[in-house]
Amino acid sequence: MEDILSFGLDRFGFMLAAVAYLFFFGLLLTTNVSNLPKYLLLAFSVTSFCWAGYYSWSAALPFTTLSSHLIENSKNAMLLLFLLAALSPADRTVSRFFSQPHVYGLLLAICCWTAISSAEVLSASNIFTGNLAVCILQLALLEALYRRSGELKWQYKPLVLALTITTLYDFALLAESALFGRIDDQIWFARGFVYCAMLPLMIIAVRRIKAWGINVYISRDIVLQSSLVLGAGIYLCLLAITGFYIRYFGGSWSNLIQATFLILGVAALIFLMVSGTLRRKLKVFIEKHFFANKFDYREKWLLLTRTLQKIDITQPDDHYKSLLYAWLNSIGYSRGAIVRFKANNISTLALQQRPPLNPDELQLINAYQQHFANRSWLVDLTDQTDPFVKSIVSEKMLDIQLIIPINTKGKLWGLCLMNAPKVNRLALNWELRDFLTLVSEQISSQLLLMQASQTLSENAQFIAFSRMSAFVVHDLKNVKAQIDLILKNADKHRNNPEFIDDSFSTLAAMQQRLHNMLSQLTNKRSDQQTDSNVQVGQLVRDVIDNRCAVRKPVPTLNIEQECSIFIDKDRFSSVLFHLIDNAQHATDVDGNITVTVAKQGDQLKLTIADTGCGMTEAFIQNRLFKAFDSTKGNAGMGIGAHDALHFVEQQGGQLNVSSVPGQGSTFTLLIPLKSSLSSAEQQETVIQGT
């Protein structure tokens, strides 16, 4: 058993190390950069290959023969030179580097040490101790390299880690040997495996360190095949070792058990090697973890976001085309279409540099809808391994490569169809699939936003129409109140010439009011300014006598101080009528309503106080000024208080309300007498009442 272990494990480890360093050497040769770190890395990989190859072929232990002294010291010298070069400026030439005193002094010292240690004038312990000093020097240079890397520690960390582990391993091996005067076989057996295991970190390091410019490129297919071969080799080694122990401990049935185990193990290996699923999963794993991404996701995402922000969702004829352009531009494609499923129909929403869908393409879309209605699955029509492509696509005239589903609310809303010239086409691998899925989700959200915007726009138009109708009805109620007042007094005063004159004056005012209302509804705005100088006390008296005398109790007017104000007379009188009418509805017939006109500083103070049912504070805060919320049932529109508040605020004033349930309410209007809002400066607003 010792013979098998001594022959198998140590030499196999060095064989793996030799293959690994040879592979590393080949990778470095593929780079087109020419600088000092690359040359010394090449030299280090060559000496390491020779070192590993020597021990895989020879049974000699280190520092026991002349050849072992030469190979060990050569490897150490190359490592020291490489570390010195890494600590030097990256643009230093080879001649300038080797002309430095400490460099050729180091080479001279190693040559002298090689001659002394191989001359058999020193004991084994002294030789091992001398090489310990070389390991200490290597560790010191590694520490200096890591410390001086500063903000670039992330780049140098794999390199320092790999070389530190191998150097510390050699240090432990030499320290043990210096203590006992001999090489420990068990530690020696693992040396090749340790060096081989650390090499991937070296490859990562030379890719990371930008200052060296060594951009090692490894094909995905090469890595996949190499990984499969390496995995198969390790698997076979484990099979061999396990089979050996089965035979060693198996007794009389050992040969049968060993043969059965090996045959089943090899069969399992063949099955795994030919498994397409395993190969795909391994390839995806390697691409995700060992290769740079195809896309700069930050740049692509910013480009997509900026493109979507430019889309005007209020223009329904343009935004689908803009979405398609953003979608195609995200992966550099030029042709495409967006289609939507409606019931059993397919509607084309946008086309980009392609003709309308032909019958073959419509048939393909129908087939996709049947197969993937409940699955969000991207399809590449150039992938002949896809079962859907095999079953559907055959001798069809298709200007489509990629089919991307658009899902909203868990359902298939539509499809985005993409194509590009063959030279620009991208294979639908895991990365492109994930990227397009993210883009699809973002654009699907944009589509939902556009649909919601259209719905809100339509609803807003209906609401505006309903709102306008409510104000029309509200104004018509004012006209009706004046007609009711004329009819109520007609029987008593029909023969009174003054009543007839007042009636005609009222009819003329109503005609003018209706004319203004129709003009405003037709033009959506008032064409003429109606502000004028108004005597507030007289206006309130006219409102009470001509429009509020129909309902009891009739308000009492108290003019403490007459005020003159420049304001829209008709609109102001309408607001006063609504507030007084609301007070009359809230007050019993035997109650009292008092309207007081006064002046407070440079403001008009108009108070409407009643002894009605009153209101709670919650009602005032939440419902009183809310449009279309009425406590009068079908008798009211619920816009009087809302319109009053809006009008007073337009004049730069305030409308304050105080109320006690069961005792009454008081509305106080404070309006500047000298308003800073001249008729030319007032903002045009949608007319809410006359």
From the N-terminal CA to the C-terminal CA, the straight-line distance is 110 Å
- Would you tell me the structural class of the helices and strands? alpha+beta
Strand content: 5-15%
Number of β-strand runs: 12
EC number: 2.7.13.3
Organism: Arsukibacterium indicum
Pfam families: HATPase_c
Protein name: PEP-CTERM system histidine kinase PrsK
Structure characterization notes:
This protein has 690 residues and is an alpha+beta fold. It has helices spanning 2-29, 36-57, 66-86, 94-98, 101-118, 124-148, 153-180, 185-189, 191-208, 220-249, 254-274, 276-290, 297-309, 319-331, 359-371, 387-392, 430-493, 497-523, 536-547, 569-586, 617-622, 640-650; strands at residues 335-342, 345-352, 379-380, 402-408, 411-419, 531-535, 556-559, 564-568, 593-600, 603-610, 654-660, 664-672. Strands 2-1-5-4-3 form a 5-stranded antiparallel sheet. A 5-stranded mixed sheet has the order 7-9-10-12-11. The protein is elongated and about 150 Å long. The chain starts with a helix and ends in an 18-residue tail after the last strand. The model is unreliable at 1-7, 524-528 and 676-690 (pLDDT under 50). InterPro entries: HATPase_dom, His_kinase_dom, XrtA/PrsK.
